[in-house]
Design goal:
This protein has 130 residues and is mostly helical. 74% of the residues lie in helices and 8% in strands. A hairpin with a 3-residue loop joins strand 2 and strand 3.
């Protein structure tokens, strides 16, 4: 089950990168690419999400152990990213609600990844459904 979920994360992150180039989802402010009117995208965002997709794909196809390692490492990466940018948002001119909404995807993704590793996977393994 963990490997299937990890494969699902690979598909999710492939969609994240691809959707950043769908004209109906993108607007421009000067040279900045804005997705859904919320997310300012750069090449580093594409690289980060692309590497995440590739790592998830490799892990899901390789083993349960590598899938758990992927979910742990990238779960903490996206959790720290959310914490850093939520904190940064408190000290700039963004309001509280826009700051939270802007960072919500990484909060949810990291919560799901780490929840699978530390809550669901041990219970599935104990029940023999690993």
């Amino acid at each position: 089950m963990v490997r299937k979920i990890t494969f699902g994360f690979a598909l999710l992150f492939i969609w994240v990168v691809a959707s950043g180039y769908i004209p109906q989802f993108i607007t421009y402010e000067g040279t900045d690419r804005i997705q859904f009117g919320l997310f300012r995208l750069s090449v580093i965002d594409d690289v980060t999400h692309g590497v995440t997709a590739l790592a998830a794909l490799v892990a899901s196809l390789a083993s349960l152990r590598l899938s758990l390692l992927f979910l742990t490492a990238f779960g903490f990466y996206y959790a720290l990213d959310a914490i850093f940018y939520l904190t940064y948002g408190l000290f700039n001119d963004k309001g509280l609600v826009p700051n939270i909404l802007l960072n919500l995807p990484h909060v949810l993704i990291s919560t799901a990844m780490l929840g699978i590793v530390y809550y669901l996977a041990p219970r599935w393994r104990a029940a023999g459904r690993g």
